[in-house]
Amino acid sequence: MPIDSHISGQEENAMLIMIKPNADEAQVAAIKSCVEDLGLRAIESQIRKQLAIAAIGDQGIAPNGFIESLPGVEHVLPIHKQYKLASREFHPDNRVVSVRHIPIGGDAIQVIAGPCSVETPEQMLAAAAGAMTAGASLLRGGAFKPRTSPYSFQGMEEEGLKYLADAARPHGMPVVTELMDPRDIDLFLKYGVDVIQIGTRNMQNFRLLKEVGQLQVPVILKRGLSATIKEWLMAAEYIAAQGNLNIILAERGVRSFEPAYRNMLDVSAIPYLKRETHLPVIVDPSHAGGAAWMVPALSLAAIAAGADGLMIECHPNPAQAWSDGEQALTPQELHALTRQVAAVAQASGRAYGQPLIDLPRAS
Ligand code: PEP
Ligand code: MN
């Protein structure tokens, strides 16, 4: 028996209904309502500039030839992958997830930077200014922290969300922060969180995935510590199946046999994912290497391998950080790194997301 047979779902049903280019709106609406009457979900996509409707669900088998006979239908294709909406079959072009004015997954490489944890208003103001000057386009900072020990700092919670938002606002930077519990969603919306991070430890928290799937807020889905790519894409499918396709996958290193560094960055996952899915792929070199000195090499490798962006821990004073200080870059180190990232991006036929500002010379 194949190891994943329990997720293969015998009743699973998925097809792409290709719509005739000359079909009118009423015909498209009628096709969608027929799909829904069958107990399936109807989700639109563009396939090589042609409108398609994905009909997906675990019930409702259409009688043979029924969908094909509807006015406006050109033909019907099966979706073979178990991750239907996350697959390139569903959406052959790269998906660009817009985070306010910042496109992720397009031509330009974007950098998300900031501390592991939100600590104080002063720390966040310095972190935001440092990240911005260094060339990052989004600000990160954890207010709810998934710590291995219950006795370690657990995050500033609501206050942290406020410090993060207040620090980012003057720079117009969107913010990224981790959600661990669906009960905090209202708080995240209240403080205008632009990107919800689902952390490694929650990659298969299916209730949490379903909840963020019901929002349209972009989601960064980090890879589970020992998750296969298929499990990871099935987790993305949970979010997409609820209607939120604004998903960004983040490779952050996987647990391996090697204790010399925190995790093993799975560089191979990057080109593999770019082939399998239309979703943007970013890399977190900080949690992969677990040491600041390793971050530049891993960042450049990730961009060379085709990643759409980086999420890098950066702290105004790493030695004083309340969590993950050993892997945090200083703003000056990040500034030096983004120049190298831009050069590798250019060599790979990509652009860099932000204009790079020179630091004033030390006198
Ligand atoms: C983080 O980004 O601070 C974090 C806890 O990451 P991960 O879920 O990858 O361990
Ligand atoms: Mn961290």
UniProtKB/TrEMBL annotation:
Keywords: Transferase. It comes from the Bacteria. Pfam families: DAHP_snth_FXD, DAHP_synth_1. Residues 15-81 form the DAHP synthase ferredoxin-like domain. Transmembrane segments: none annotated. Residues 101-342 form the DAHP synthetase I/KDSA domain. It comes from Acidithiobacillus ferriphilus. This is 3-deoxy-7-phosphoheptulonate synthase. GO terms for molecular function: 3-deoxy-7-phosphoheptulonate synthase activity. Its EC number is 2.5.1.54. The keyword Transferase applies. The keyword Coiled coil does not apply.
